What does this fold into?
Amino acid sequence: MNLEEYQGVWVFIEQNEGEIEGVSLELLGAGRKLADKLEVPLAGVLLGDGIRQLANQVIYYGADEVYIIDHPVLKDYRTESYMKGVILLAEKYKPEIFLYGATPNGKDLASAVATDLSTGLTADTTMLDIDLENRLFEASRPAFGGNIMATILCKKHRPQMATVRPKVMKALEPDQSRQGKIMEETISLKEEEMRTKVLQIVKDVSNTANLADAHVIVCGGKGMGDYQNFQLIHEFAKTIGASVGGSRDVVEAGWLPHSLQIGQTGETVTPKVFFAIGISGAIQHVVGMKNSEIIIAINKDPNAPIFDVATYGIVGDAMEILPKLIEQFKQVLKTSGGELSYV
Ligand code: FAD
It folds into this structure.
C-alpha cells in the first residue's frame, strides 16, 4: 500500500430523516483541526435519499468538500448499502483519515468498512491529534477501566479510522459565508438485491435522548443510600426542570435504568449545569460529565475526588441539603411565578 496516495480528512455525516446528527457536526469541528494541521481539505461524506440540500450545512460547519451519494435504496441506514457507498468513495478518493460518530449506526458502518478496506479502526475515541513528524493520526480512548488513556496508531494501512463519542468534540459555529466543493457520485444499488429490509422504524422512547440534550442534569450516586432516598433526586430535578442521571453503582442497584447511566460505559453529557450528588467522582464517571459548563457537587466527604472537577462544592449530607434546596427553589419559583430559564 502506497500511503502517500492517501490525502484528506473525511467525516461520515450521519443523517436521520434528512436531519444531520449532532455528533457529525461535532466531528466536522474536530476534523477541521486535524485537516488544518495536515494542511489538507476536510470533507463530509453524505449518503441518503433526497439529501442534497444538506450539503451546504456540512460546509457551514467546517467542511471544504462534500461527497454525496443520493439514491432511493439509501433512504434508511443499512450496513450493506451504506458500506457499498462509502467504500466506493474511499477507494476512489483515498482519504487519509476517516471519522465516524460512535453511534449505533456509525459503529456498525465503520467496522464493516474497516474490514472491507483491510484497515484499522479505533473505537469510541475521546481525543484526536496528529503526530506531524510521522504524519500519523493519534486516536485516544480510555483503557484498562479508564485508568489510562491509550493512543492507538494505524501505521501501515489507510484510511486511519476512528469512531468518536458524541458530545466530546465541539462543533464550530456555523458560518453561512463558507464556500465548498460538492461532488456527487452515482452508485448502482438495487432494492431486490439488498439482503435486509427495513419494515418499520420504531422511535427510541427511552430517556437517553433527553439526557444527551438536557441543559441541566441532577445526577445521583450511591451516597443517596437507598432507593427511597434517591427519590429526592427525582424531586429536586422535577422542581428545577432538570433531567435525572446516575452513576453506574446506582444503575447496578436498580434505582435507575441503564439508559440514564453517565460515564465511560454510559452516556457522555455536556449540560450547562450538572449536579453531582452523593457521587465520589471515579474516573469512569468523570469522563462522562467533565465537559459540563458548571458542575455543582454535594458530598459529605471533603476529600471526594468529585470536588477536583467541581465548579462549586457543598460539603454536607445530601439528605439534609436536598430538602432545603427543593424548598428554596419552590419558594423562588412561587414568588417569580414561572419556570427557571437556563441561558
Ligand atoms: P461511590 O463511589 O460509593 O460514592 C458515593 C459517594 O457518596 C462518596 O463519595 C460518599 O462520600 C458520598 N456520600 C455518602 N453518603 C452521602 C450523603 N449522605 N450525602 C452526600 N454524600 C454522601 N461508574 C459510572 O458512574 N459510570 C460509568 O459509566 C462507569 N463505568 C465503569 C467502567 C468500568 C470498566 C469500571 C471498572 C467501572 C465503571 N464505573 C462507572 C464505576 C466507577 O468506578 C465507580 O465505582 C462508580 O462511579 C461509583 O459510583 P458512586 O460515585 O455513585 O458511588
User: Anything to note?
Assistant: The first strand starts at residue 9 and ends at 13. The chain is about 30% helix and 25% strand.
